[in-house]
Design goal:
heterodimer; A: 329 residues; B: 455 residues; alpha/beta; 45% helix; transmembrane (chain A); MetI-like_sf (chain A); transmembrane helix (chain A)
Amino acid sequence: MTSASPAPSAGPGGVAKTPSPPGPPHSAPPTAGPPGTRSRAPARVRRGLLRALPVSPAVVLLALFLAGPIGYCAYIAFTDLQLTGQAESSFVGLDNFREAFGDERFLNAVWLTLVFTFLSSIIGQNTLGLALATLMQRASKPVRTLTGAIVVTAWVLPEVVAGFLLYAFFRREGTLNAVLDFLHLPSQNWLFTLPILAVSFANVWRGTAFSMLVYSAALNEIPKEITEAAEVDGAGGWRRMWHITLPMIRRSIGTNLMLNTLQTLSVFGLIWVMTRGGPGNDSQTLPLFMYEQAFQKSMIGYGTAVALLLLLVGSLFSVVYMRLLRTEV
Amino acid sequence: MPVRPTTTPLLLAATTLLAAGTLTACGGGSGDDPDTVKISFKQSTDNQIRVMDTYLEDIKKQFEKENPGKKVKLVPIKAPDSEYYTKLQQMLRSPKTAPDLVYEDTFLINSDITSGYLKPLDTYLAKWKDWDQFIGTAKTAAKAADGKTYGVPDGTDTRGLWFSKAIFKKAGLPADWRPKTWDDVLEAARTVKKKVPDVTPLNVYTGKPAGEAATMQGFEMLAYGTGKDPLYDPAAKKWVTGSKGFKDSLKFVETVYKEKLGPDVSDALDPNFATRVRGELLPEGKLAINLDGSWLPQDWGKGAGHEWPEWSQELGLAAMPTQHGQAPGKVSMSGGWTWAIPAKADNPDLAFKFIETMQTKANAKKWYIANSGIAVRKDVAADPTYVKAQPGIKFFTDLVASTYYRPAYPEYPKVSTAIQEAMESVTTGDSSVEDAANGYDEEVDSATDGQVIEK
């Protein structure tokens, strides 16, 4: 049981990965007679239940394969379970959490996770994605196709491959320094001097395509007449952006920010390949910290507690974005 | 409408179905057959590498022929190291899934012993005459804190100094270099730095990005040359803190990087540096001395990506000396794998019989040659066909006499990380040797729940 994944994927991909075992063969809903219309409260309840029937298998599966593991993780976070090296584990209450908050390396990881998320997701992917989408609206078709292809390629590359590419870009004999040398600018080992910036850039490089696609779709939804009317009224580019485009795609901004943030919070492979969290702990975000505790030091209980805290950070962000979405309606 | 009654059976049906599915998935092979011995081993994730599969198939045939009516079932686990441990540990938990014989890394065997996963083999070993052929240090590889032995090693690895003869010639250093003390090593590196300025004089793995390589190839190769039991005191069963040997070893690392005798710090802390050492720096003659393991030539063989068959002429080998040249003069660290019998195995007797078949002199020799391992048996180590199988093999086999196994007790991974952190902070110059050593002491004290002894 020890290998039960302690890191419930916070990204939107997690749901899709839920294994789908053979469903119950007779899952077709029994045809219900027309619900009684002369109904009092119980009849309404009954009708509600009846309607819930078709989705119940899905709910059961979700409960078993999604809520189950998360629940089990939540339980493990309160024990001192180890991968190996211990005859039996015991319940330790809040010890793991207390240890985390007293551990400066954990606090360092939280801080770096926030920096990483802020730089790469909120500022980088989001803004750049919007900028690209806006520019592409105006660009000619060949330019649009080409740019789109390049950006999307970065997105579909497996995380580890992207990690190696960017490692090769940033390392001391890498492409970036070659370019800087050519321009007679001082070069340095970016992965060593500015690791969190380097991995943030890597994440921007990799994830911008997603924002670009979301915003392209959103921008296409804006009726041409409104923009044209504003143009006729003499509104310049920035004004149109600020007063028309942004308010109209506000909902997309919220959704995009939420998805980006959740995905960025759980980035592991990219950083692992590029810096392994180093040098020192200078690029060790929460997922890397969690991995080190759970699998390198085999403290599954503690690692799981950290994963739960990561989940908490993710849900905090979600709540903020949900608010953002709601006020706008 | 009888809504409620319908929902409940539906839920029940779904749950039952799922439960049934899960159960059948788990309980695949029942291990009740007293004539079948089930063997789990690590299968390479590279489909082309079938060294172990081929070897075990061969032993299986021999075993089934010698023991009529008995069967061998090979249960390969195809996974990288870290996942292999996890899978194995899960299998060992239940009598339903526990095999009869498992392949265990010496790195984690003590953790699995503490978890109660393995069976002591002393009663078997006492009756097995081949056990006398195993070298003393290797016998301790799978010895637990309780003094019992839980595994039979099937080879090991050792570590030493690799040096470039061409660079040494340019620097005016001897081609048959034999450093006697740490100072000799540093002095040679200083000479290289002065006379051949465009190469890296000496590589010692360091820091967290290098991981266990920093601890074992780097730090422990130094620490075990400073005196007895530098990390763990087996008599007191406690981890050692505050030792002078520890600080001296850190001091060595600090000197290498402070005097710029080692690679550029940012290179040394690059997680992929070890690959570059083997693939670029050594073959291209950019590194003078490298403190590293016996397995390097695996990368330079035919079809291995960095073919470099001339390495045996271009590189020299020297044993890592002890600090001041104190007896026995040289030092090496060893790891490797062992065959162990799970506590929940159904047929332990038959499993041990299989070990005996694997470890006849002829079969052991076949295995060492096939996987370029270093022999831990005296008779194989002295065998000319083994010695001549590969250049360098004699050198590394001779080191087995002065080798040490890690104190790989359950806390070891945490201690190892603490060592890497201490190394890293003196490598970057972020803290003094004194501070780094104090940091280590605190870290070890908390990682081992205060099971420490001042030395």
